[in-house]
User: What shape does this take?
Amino acid sequence: MSDVHDDQLQRILAPDSVAVVGASTDPQKRGHQAIATLEAGGYEGDVYPVNPSADEIRGRTVYDSVSDIPEPVDLALVVVPAPVVPSVLEDCADTDLAGAVVVAVGFGETGDEGEALERRIVDLANQHDIRLIGPNTSGMINVHEGLNLVGAENVPAGDVALLCQSGNLAIALFMEAMGVPGLGFSHYVGVGNESDLRFDEYLPFYAEDDETAAITLYVEGMSDGRAFLQRAREVTPDTPIVALKGGRSEVGKQSTSSHTGSMAGDAAVADAVFGQAGVISVERADELLPTAGALGSLPPADGENVAILADGGGHATLAADALAEQGLSVPDLTAETQDRLREVLPDAASVVNPVDVAGGTDDDPTVFYDCAAAIAADPNVDALLLSGLFGGYGIRFSDALAEPELDAAHDIAGLVDEQDIPVVVQSAYESAEPDAHAVLRERGIPVQESLEVATRTIAALATYGDHCARADRKSDFRLTPDAADDATLAGAVDDTGGDLSEYEAREVVSQHDVPLSPYELATGAEDAAAAADRFDGPVAMKVVSPDIVHKSDVGGVALDVTDDPGDTYRDLVGAARDHDADATVEGVLVSPMREDGVELVVGVVEDEQFGHVAMVGIGGVFVEVLEDVAFRALPLTQADAREMLADLDAQELLDGARGAEPVDRAALVDLLVAVSRFVEANPRVTELDLNPVLASGSDVEALDAAMTVRPAGRNGSGEPAEQASEESADD
Assistant: This one.
């Protein structure tokens, strides 16, 4: 699969001509309605109906096939049944068609037979240099050019591009935008099964599009998540991307598989790697457009310090709580700012953050601007949230207040440019659509009725600002493995792959700057006793078997062994035999006891969409219970590794809870980067688990290691590696 050329994508998303294949004389059918919609929308390009059984549709000449059209055609809207699609593409072999929108269902989302048909149409398209949108798509829209190949009515024009794997959700978002003045769309693409044109391939077009300020995604599954991360990293510093990931629950994942034919990856992984690339994730559909609108119209926040300007104590308190829930801070205002506020507010007002005007704006709403100007100039403030009733003073108190409230709105909007600071307004009167709100929205300031959505929007502005400031220090997501697996890995496992024993895993990773506790492999009771003597103190003993992953669950681990290590050796081997008489037992690993410190888990998993992903979390036997983990895609930079540690909830443990010595974060960062480099050099590793990793002050070492390796010559999808290499070369 090769990347789409810029000029080809331009012809697809902004075509000068469209052929409607499957055009119909029946006004009830999609092939007729598509032409009517293009006419009603004012599309100025050429429209060619294609149907071998008709002569004229809506006054237009009908052609038997695309190849019969005498003029060049940029895009085909294909509305024929799935089994007919291959013949349509074969007919286009000698044309200069750039792309086709394949609406039909009955492809990969339906099972094996549909998957075979989908592969066939993709092969045909590739042979003829035609790129496909879909199949199983609702279509596409270029709103500003009147190119509506969906049939949705009155899609509001704006500057948000939408890539979506659900036609119904797209309609819901269109309806939502209709009710929000100033919010609308530049483009919509229903990516469908993403069989050919991928999510990532659309991004450069929208990044260069003058009509697009932000890109939104609804994603159920991606055919090439790694390519998306690479492209998103290039795009996000200039064009924000907001993503809603479907399939977060087990039930949702099952629905995803049947809906698009795509496998949904772990949502926690998707959110983490999206953030690594600068993509802002939201968890609710009602957050998607407000977040994108704010990111597209406001400057990003330079930090996480938010000032609250409220006209009531309740709103001030709830706003502070909501911001704290988003991980944002409500900083102290400088003495100078507080003095400026006292000059315009009554004595009862609170001039600390949150600022409560305490009735100081009831008779003169322009005081809102005086307060906002003082706060926006405060060096401790990165963003401003105006919360309460602003916009409703002319409605609630007196018509005479509507005009000064309008003046205040104009002046507050000017602060964004003057101070280069984002301002978000939450108002109980949002649904009344007062003129003051219209002024704010026209100037790019979002107005929300929901305090939660407003604070989530500010959090997104802070997250985006942080990414833009540090994007060049994060991963570029480009893995550069050696031509062959590292020699140490090749010597540890044969071409069939599989699970390595702990001893084998230790032998491999110990040669790649991964710190491990000392160890010896004992193959008999006397060896075990001698090894224990050499470590001079209590030892840990663990049975070594590639067939027994959870050794402690089968009695294969003994801790604090001081007496009779030979007997302990025999007990551990016996327990392994009792559990699985056919298990391969290589011996018993003997290591000095380690007890003091914070137990972590460090590892790598191969995500089905994004490839190799690193993990760090609070480890030990309760790792699955606590689920305090962070993910990032490989390769890791130092900045990525530091972010992973900062993402963990258990910061107090790392900082030295109850008098303990703080963990050396730099040593943990070095460990994460070393693990990343090892797996990058050995892409056959599908899973690496160091658990626990004991961190005590400056000492960091892994006490256990497990590893799984895929068969030689296979990629992550089980396909021959040669095939994957050819596809990567095309990319």
Q: What stands out?
A: The chain is about 40% helix and 20% strand. Residues 95 and 470 are 46 Å apart (CA to CA).
